[in-house]
Q: What sequence folds into this?
């Protein structure tokens, strides 16, 4: 099977390289209002996200509650519980920052577009994927800061959960609500120009990534990350993904899910959103120069999940094309 590098992953690499050679525009001393531009861009991202949310589809999606519960529990509970046991072993400042980066990754919501696309490619339960991907982002607005607040208050005096939620409400939740309210009028516009809006989303994310890494490079944060450390971080990311992937499949078998529902559970329950991650990092770690380190495991996870899930999606799709490698289970239907 021919594999190619995802264009967005390549764009992220380019943004990091540009930040390394030209950190001036993204630094805190820069007169260019990159922070303001990214804040406005974030609000627009979630406004358009609200425009694309259909209240009717969300209501109809509630029927398959066992599947939805499994996906959300894996996303917001299983992931963090797998990271928590390593907390006592991370004593130094550098180790603690890296552990927070993994907790941040674990506490994030699932992706939206890629989850649905991959489930569709694998011939899974697409309506359930749409529901879970949509609702996950809304749940994450409340849950992700709670997880981070449990530990960041112990390490960062400037962390104020109330101010964090206020920023999340103003920059994310309010635009989503406005988008949902205007969905009946502008929903078709958002769907018609979906590709252009996706390009806009990715551009804003790349801008935030550039700024985060520019500040980290300027502060010399990455001087402490050696090649061996980077390799260990990569292995930890891969291990975390596969552990959740196989545990999700195990729980799906216990619940006697059909093949379609199992695909949806695995593909949605193992994904983490780079969009939400970069946006949340901008708010949760606004005064930290280590944002680049915080985002490192997430970006590695994002690239790996796209690669692996696309391979699995192609394998699952073969059962529809006459190569039934994954026999369908009828229980639970």
A:
């Amino acid at each position: 099977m021919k594999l190619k590098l995802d264009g967005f992953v390549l764009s992220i690499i380019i943004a990091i390289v540009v930040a390394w050679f030209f950190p001036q525009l993204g630094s805190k001393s820069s007169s260019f209002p990159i922070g303001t531009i990214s804040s406005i861009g974030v609000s627009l991202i979630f406004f358009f996200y609200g425009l694309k949310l259909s209240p009717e589809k969300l209501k109809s999606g509630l029927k398959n509650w066992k599947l939805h519960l499994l996906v959300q529990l894996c996303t917001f509970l299983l992931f963090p519980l797998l990271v928590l046991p390593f907390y006592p072993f991370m004593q130094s400042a550098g180790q603690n920052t890296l552990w927070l980066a993994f907790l941040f990754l674990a506490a994030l919501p699932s992706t939206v577009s890629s989850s649905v696309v991959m489930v569709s490619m694998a011939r899974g339960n697409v309506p359930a994927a749409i529901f879970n991907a949509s609702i996950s982002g809304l749940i994450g607005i409340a849950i992700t800061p709670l997880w981070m607040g449990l530990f960041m208050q112990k390490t960062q005096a400037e962390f104020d959960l109330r101010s964090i939620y206020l920023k999340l409400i103003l920059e994310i939740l309010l635009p989503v609500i406005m988008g949902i309210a205007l969905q009946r009028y502008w929903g078709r516009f958002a769907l018609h120009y979906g590709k252009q809006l996706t390009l806009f989303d990715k551009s804003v994310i790349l801008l935030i990534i550039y700024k985060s890494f520019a500040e980290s490079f300027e502060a010399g944060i990455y001087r402490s990350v050696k090649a061996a450390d980077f390799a260990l971080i990569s292995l930890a990311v891969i291990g975390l993904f596969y552990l959740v992937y196989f545990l999700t499949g195990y729980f799906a078998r216990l619940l006697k899910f059909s093949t379609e529902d199992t695909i949806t559970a695995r593909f949605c329950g193992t994904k983490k959103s780079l969009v939400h991650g970069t946006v949340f990092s901008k708010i949760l770690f606004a005064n930290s120069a280590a944002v680049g380190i915080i985002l490192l495991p997430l970006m590695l996870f994002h690239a790996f999940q796209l690669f692996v899930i696309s391979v699995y999606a192609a394998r699952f799709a073969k059962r529809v094309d006459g190569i039934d490698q994954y026999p369908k289970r009828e229980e639970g239907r």
The CA atoms of residues 155 and 213 lie 22 Å apart.
